[in-house]
């Protein structure tokens, strides 16, 4: 009745619903219950975390963030308050262009990763891939390298082409940033960039072992696919006006948000940076 009082007379609604006018006005003057007050306070915290997450967290991550703040509440309660107040995380977009283009006659490396996405220490296994970003100036291509131990993006590069130099730049950035020990694995699909002689020579020079997914097996590089899907849901969900605008947004997303702050369910709802920090007394990032 309160929600519709601007549309219908109170007297008419009371008659139709079998409610006395005095009872309705008494209800309006009544103080909110303790539960209602607690829900209102919890909702404000939910809204704050949702805003800080760039409107990307659903109820599971918001619930975990609340727990970190010392707020005791159930996940179903969080989900219910979000649903009632129309707080929804962004949804994934459809994929369109194809970035994996195999070169006829290229020799693929053996699959050294073999679907093991949980190495025991940092810089044991990296995964890499290329995706596209939509801009009004045309596609911007992003090559990224992820360390599977804590799932940070350790190297990345962007260009208006998908040539081998793009993946070389991303890999070189990762090597300079992490200084891995000789013998670690670099895993990718069988795209022509990753099976090229130039890229293989680069891996050989720094002592990295190449590994390629089998043809037609999308699960072999599922972790990178998941990152790109997250990126397009949380950052590149609309067309950018320019490639420069896209570059700035993606840089900020990776370096400020994804690596350092975003809660990852596979890491026990820790950020990659925090996960590595906690394990730094056991593992050295070499």
Explain what the structure shows:
This protein is of the alpha/beta class. The protein has two domains: 10-84, no CATH class; 125-281, Ribonuclease H-like superfamily/Ribonuclease H (Nucleotidyltransferase, domain 5), CATH 3.30.420.10. Helix content is 42%, strand content 11%. The chain is built from eleven helices and five strands, in the order αααααβββαβααβααα. Strands 3-2-1-4-5 form a five-stranded mixed beta sheet, sandwiched between helices.
Brief overview, please?
With 286 residues, the chain is of the alpha/beta class. It has 11 helices and 5 strands; from the N terminus they run αααααβββαβααβααα.
CATH topology of the largest domain: Nucleotidyltransferase, domain 5
The outline comes out as elongated
What is the CATH architecture term of the largest domain? 2-Layer Sandwich
The assigned structural class equals: alpha/beta
Number of domains: 2
Topology record:
Layout: H1 10-17, H2 21-29, H3 34-52, H4 59-68, H5 75-84, E1 125-133, E2 140-147, E3 153-159, H6 164-178, E4 185-188, H7 192-195, H8 197-206, E5 209-212, H9 222-234, H10 243-258, H11 272-278
Parallel strand pairs: 1-4, 4-5
Antiparallel strand pairs: 1-2, 2-3
Helix pairs in contact: 3-4, 4-5, 6-8
Which terms would index this structure?
single chain, 286 residues, alpha/beta, Nucleotidyltransferase, domain 5, 5-stranded mixed β-sheet, 11 helices, 5 strands, 42% helix, elongated
């Amino acid at each position: 009745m309160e929600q519709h009082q601007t549309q219908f007379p109170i007297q008419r609604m009371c008659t139709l619903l079998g409610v006395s006018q005095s009872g309705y006005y008494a209800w309006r003057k009544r103080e909110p219950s303790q539960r209602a007050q607690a829900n209102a306070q919890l909702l404000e915290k939910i809204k704050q975390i949702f805003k800080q997450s760039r409107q990307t967290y659903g109820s599971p991550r918001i619930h975990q963030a609340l727990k970190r703040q010392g707020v005791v509440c159930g996940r179903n309660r969080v989900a219910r308050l979000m649903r009632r107040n129309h707080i929804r995380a962004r949804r994934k977009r459809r994929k369109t262009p194809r970035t994996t283009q195999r070169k006829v006659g290229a020799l693929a490396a053996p699959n050294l990763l073999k679907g093991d996405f949980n190495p025991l220490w940092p810089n044991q296994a990296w995964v890499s891939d290329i995706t596209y970003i939509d801009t009004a100036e045309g596609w911007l291509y992003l090559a990224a390298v992820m360390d599977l131990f804590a799932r940070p993006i350790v190297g990345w590069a962007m260009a208006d082409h998908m040539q081998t130099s793009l993946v070389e730049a991303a890999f070189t950035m990762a090597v300079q940033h992490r200084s891995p020990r000789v013998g670690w694995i670099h895993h990718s699909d069988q795209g022509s960039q990753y099976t090229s002689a130039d890229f293989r020579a680069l891996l050989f020079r720094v002592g990295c072992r190449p590994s390629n997914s089998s043809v037609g097996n999308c699960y072999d590089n599922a972790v990178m696919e998941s990152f790109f899907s997250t990126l397009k849901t949380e950052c590149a969900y609309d067309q950018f006006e320019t490639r420069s605008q896209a570059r700035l947004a993606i840089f900020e997303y990776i370096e400020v948000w994804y690596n350092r702050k975003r809660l990852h369910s596979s890491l026990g709802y820790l950020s990659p940076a925090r996960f590595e920090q906690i394990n730094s007394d056991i593992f050295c990032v070499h």
